[in-house]
C-alpha cells in the first residue's frame, strides 16, 4: 500500500518503510550506533531527497536509541557521567552543524555534501573497523580465546588537563577528550542525519579506552539528546522533517532495537566490530557508485 510523504513529495510503500525501520532498529540494538548511517542512505536509495532524509532520520534515531538504552541500562552497561560530557560537546556541535546545513542548502550544495560526507567518512571508518576486527579475531584464535589487555594506547591527548575519574568505565582521563569527540560527532549528526555512532563507538573504544560492552549503551544515551536537538533545529530552520515518514520508521525501529540488543549481548566485541565495518563499507560502496553513474535526468527543475 502506497502512502504519500508530504515533505519528501513522493509515494512509498508502507510495508517497505516499516521493514526498513525494523531492520535498521535491529542493527542499532546489536551495534549501538543509532542506525542513521544505514537509514539515511537507504532513504536516498528509495527516492527521498537527501536533505529530507537527513533531517527525518535524525528523528528516527531517537526512538531506536531510547529503546536500546533502556535495554543496556538494565544490564548496567551505561556510563552516565561519560554520556553527559559527550552530550555537552554534542549539543554545541549539532547546533553549529545545523547552521552549516542551512548555509549549504541555501547555496544548493547540500545534496552533494551529504553524499560526499558519507563516502569519505563511511569508507575510512568502515575499512579501519573491518581491518581491526579481522586482526582481533585472528589474535583471539591464536591466543586460544584469550582477549587482549587494552584496546588503546596512551598518546598525547591522554596528557590533557581537567582529568576526571569515570568509575563505571574504570578510566581516569581528561574531560576535554570526550567533549571534543562529542562536538565532532554533533556536527556530523547535523550534516549526515546520523547519531554518529559509527564514529563515536570506535572513538570511545580506541581513544578513550572504554570496554566495548559499556560503549554501546553509553553511545546510545548521548545519541538520544543530540538527535533530538538536530530534529528540532532542522524542523525550525529548514522545514525538512517529514513527520509521516518519521512515524512509520519509528514503529519498526523500536521493535527491531529490542531484538537487536538481545542478539548483541551474546556476541563477542571483536565480531561486532568486524561485522559493523563490513556493513559500513557496503553502504559506502553503493553511495560511491551512485556518484559515478550518470543520472537518468541530467537536468531537473525545482519549484521554489
UniProtKB/TrEMBL annotation:
Record-annotated membrane-spanning stretches: 12-31, 37-59, 80-104, 116-138, 171-199, 205-228, 240-259, 271-293
GO CC list: plasma membrane
Subcellular localization, as worded in the UniProt entry: Cell membrane; Membrane
Listed name of the protein: Probable membrane transporter protein
Pfam families in the record: TauE
This protein's record includes keyword Nucleotide-binding: no
Species of the source: Kiloniella litopenaei
Domain of life: Bacteria
Family matches, as InterPro entries: TM_pro_TauE-like (IPR002781), TSUP/Inactive_protease-like (IPR051598)
Family, per entry: Belongs to the 4-toluene sulfonate uptake permease (TSUP) (TC 2.A.102) family.
Major site of localization recorded for this protein: membrane
Keywords, sorted A to Z: Cell membrane, Membrane, Transmembrane, Transmembrane helix
Coiled-coil intervals: none
PANTHER family: MEMBRANE TRANSPORTER PROTEIN MJ0441-RELATED, MEMBRANE TRANSPORTER PROTEIN YTNM-RELATED
Membrane topology according to the record: Multi-pass membrane protein
Amino acid at each position: 500500500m502506497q502512502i504519500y510523504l508530504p515533505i519528501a513529495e513522493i509515494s512509498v510503500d508502507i510495508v517497505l518503510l516499516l521493514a526498513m525501520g525494523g531492520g535498521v532498529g535491529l542493527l542499532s540494538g546489536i551495534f549501538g550506533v543509532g542506525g542513521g548511517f544505514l537509514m539515511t542512505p537507504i532513504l536516498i536509495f528509495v527516492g527521498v531527497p537527501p536533505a529530507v532524509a537527513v533531517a527525518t532520520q535524525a528523528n528516527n534515531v531517537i526512538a531506536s536509541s531510547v529503546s536500546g538504552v533502556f535495554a543496556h541500562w538494565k544490564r548496567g552497561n551505561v556510563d552516565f557521567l561519560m554520556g553527559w560530557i559527550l552530550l555537552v560537546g554534542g549539543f554545541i556541535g549539532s547546533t553549529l552543524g545545523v547552521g552549516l546545513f542551512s548555509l549549504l542548502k541555501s547555496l544548493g550544495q547540500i545534496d552533494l555534501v551529504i553524499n560526499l560526507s558519507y563516502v569519505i567518512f563511511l569508507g575510512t571508518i568502515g575499512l579501519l573497523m573491518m581491518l581491526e576486527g579481522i586482526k582481533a579475531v585472528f589474535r583471539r584464535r591464536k591466543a586460544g580465546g584469550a582477549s587482549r589487555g587494552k584496546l588503546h594506547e596512551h598518546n598525547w591527548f591522554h596528557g590533557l588537563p581537567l582529568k576526571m575519574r569515570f568509575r563505571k568505565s574504570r578510566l581516569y582521563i581528561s574531560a576535554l577528550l570526550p567533549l571534543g569527540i562529542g562536538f565532532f560527532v554533533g556536527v556530523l549528526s547535523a550534516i549526515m542525519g546520523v547519531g554518529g555512532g559509527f564514529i563515536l563507538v570506535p572513538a570511545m573504544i580506541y581513544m578513550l579506552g572504554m570496554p566495548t560492552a559499556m560503549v554501546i549503551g553509553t553511545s546510545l544515551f548521548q545519541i538520544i539528546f543530540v538527535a533530538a536537538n538536530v530534529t528540532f533545529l532542522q524542523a525550525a530552520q529548514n522545514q525538512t522533517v517529514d513527520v509521516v515518514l518519521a512515524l512509520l520508521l519509528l514503529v519498526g525501529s523500536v521493535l527491531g532495537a529490542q531484538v537487536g540488543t538481545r542478539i548483541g549481548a551474546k556476541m563477542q566485541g571483536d565480531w561486532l566490530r568486524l561485522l559493523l565495518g563490513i556493513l559500513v563499507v557496503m553502504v559506502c560502496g553503493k553511495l560511491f557508485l551512485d556518484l559515478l553513474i550518470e543520472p537518468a535526468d541530467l537536468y531537473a527543475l525545482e519549484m521554489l
